[in-house]
Amino acid sequence: MTAASTAKKISKGQEKAQAMRDACWPDLDEAKLWNRKKVSGFTTIPRTMPVIMNIIDTLTKNKPAGSTYFVLWCRTFDQAFLEIDNPLTLASEAGFTGERALSTWKDRMRSLVELGFIDAKEGPAGTFHYVLLFNPHKVVWTLKNKIQPGTFLQLQARAIDITAKDFKPLETPAA
Fold first, then answer.
1. pLDDT of 128-158, one tens digit each?
2. Angle between the N-to-C axes of helices 49-59 and 101-115, in degrees from 0 to 180, rounded to the nearest 10
3. CA gap 130, 85 in Å, rounded
4. CA distances from 4 to 37, 139, 142, 149 (A)
């Protein structure tokens, strides 16, 4: 598939969505909508994120870390890196409050490191000052044997639906 045909396919999907939206909401005031091309404060997030968050929550059992992972994605740029100067802010954004908010957040961050979704380096603000986010599709493949087959299939189906060409195991370099 060429770049031109990919662009055409995307524009067809956008045209279809626009036509359906116009049919459902013919008198819509566009000023009420979020348009990433007209405002700042957006990031790119995989469309598979809801399923990935569910997988994370399942793998971390009674200590769900999906919201912690989502907060990291909402703060990162294309370098897949973030510097956390105030971990209590991220703890709050992930929904942790009270006296144990910070320790709960750190526990969830440790889980994300253990699962392989992130790596972290210590810095002035503590253990998780510098954070690197790995491609979640590649991480999920490494965890495939720990994920319920139906859930993995759900993620795979969504990846196929959105033509996520990166949803495959990480290729190991030839020796």
1. 999 999 999 999 999 999 999 999 999 999 9
2. 100
3. 9
4. 21, 30, 33, 36
Residue 77 belongs to domain spanning? 49-136
Q: How far is CA 50 from CA 1, 68, 118, in A?
A: 28, 13, 17
Dihedral angle sign, alpha carbons of residues 62, 129, 45, 154: negative
Any domain includes 37: no
Q: Is residue 66 part of a domain?
A: yes
Same domain, 23 and 94: no
Beta bridge partners of 109: none
| Residue 85 belongs to a domain | yes
Q: Render the burial of 131-143: b for 16+ CB within 10 Å, e for the rest.
A: bebbebbbbbbee
Q: Give pTM, 2 decimals.
A: 0.85
